[in-house]
């Protein structure tokens, strides 16, 4: 037996957990770990493989950035022993497993995501930890948490998820609805609008190729309508207030810094977010072999020497429902 009876008020009625996954056999769970990119949904492909391009050094660097972010999100939420936390868009469980440690043996964490493959992945990890009795897994979108009862949770967390949600206003309303009075919301979101224009205008003989890459990115994620870039930190604050949160804190951080050297192979096989192809895929789609070689001649030394600068901004927001 892997989970306790459904007696807790926050128990989702239409989510799934490890016991009710008829079509998801143990074999399937084992396979998930070994699956190639193409067999996973786009979210799982990216989180488990494509964000670090299979490079352990890139993964180490990502985690070096992510662990302090996780800790700040949980600190801001003031997660305490015995509490119930919902992590919306849990992915492979960065925030949710951190919360699980903090709530201890008497608390619980609901992992929710729109990716079945990532819920499967998190379920497997929780099982290996022997923690399934303190976890629930809910397939749900941030803007429709109907599987979670009103006023049933102590804390809602979410990291880098609203950026993919078109109706952010509705997501905030859902966060407010599922929290108990006195419940806390804690969010981290990159503010991608800030880093928008990262393509050079002085690429010499490669400029035409750079412009074609820029145009493809713009086609995939139009800068005026895509949910990833149609908001900034003030919109997050506005949505939180409109949802009904009365105490709201916002910390915004922006940085322009010299780029760090990176391995060319890693950059080729990495994509910036789950909705984007890798650079290798973009080059294969756009360029003839001669153009691809010319683009590499231009870009590779810049990548490997860390030329240019990187731009990034992010927001931490936390709020209390009175
Ligand atoms: C960048 S990952 C972040 C994962 C995790 N929160 C973390 O901190 O590592 C984005 C996650 O959001 C999920 N996601 C995308 N759209 C969503 C939506 N509308 N509702 C809930 N989750 C969503 C994806 O499946 C993915 O797991």
Produce the secondary structure layout.
Blueprint (H helix, E strand, L loop, with lengths): L25 H9 L7 H9 L5 H22 L6 E5 L5 H10 L4 E6 L2 H14 L5 E5 L13 E7 L8 H11 E12 L16 H14 L12 H11 L3 E12 L5 H5 L10 H8 L2 H17 L3 E12 L2
Parallel strand pairs: 1-2, 1-4, 2-3, 4-5
Antiparallel strand pairs: 5-7, 6-7
Helix pairs in contact: 1-5, 3-4, 6-8
Strand content: 15-25%
Shape: globular
Please give the radius of gyration in angstroms: 21 Å
CATH class designation of the largest domain = Alpha Beta
CATH superfamily membership of the largest domain, which one?
Answer: Vaccinia Virus protein VP39
Tell me the number of strands: 7
Alpha-carbon distance between the two ends: 39 Å
Q: What hetero molecules are bound to the protein chains?
A: S-adenosylmethionine
**Helix/strand-derived class?**
alpha/beta
Spatial sequence of strands, sheet with the most strands: 3-2-1-4-5-7-6
CATH topology term of the largest domain = Rossmann fold
Major sheet attributes = 7 strands, mixed
- Label the CATH architecture of the largest domain: 3-Layer(aba) Sandwich
- Low-confidence segments: 1-26
Number of helices: 11
**Element-by-element helix/strand order:** HHHEHEHEEHEHHEHHHE
Count of structural domains: 2
- Mean pLDDT across every amino acid position: 88
The amount of helix comes to: 40-55%
Brief sketch in words of this structure:
40% of the residues lie in helices and 18% in strands. It is an alpha/beta fold and 322 residues long. The chain binds S-adenosylmethionine (SAM).
Keywords:
disordered N terminus; 322 residues; binds S-adenosylmethionine; Rossmann fold; 2 domains
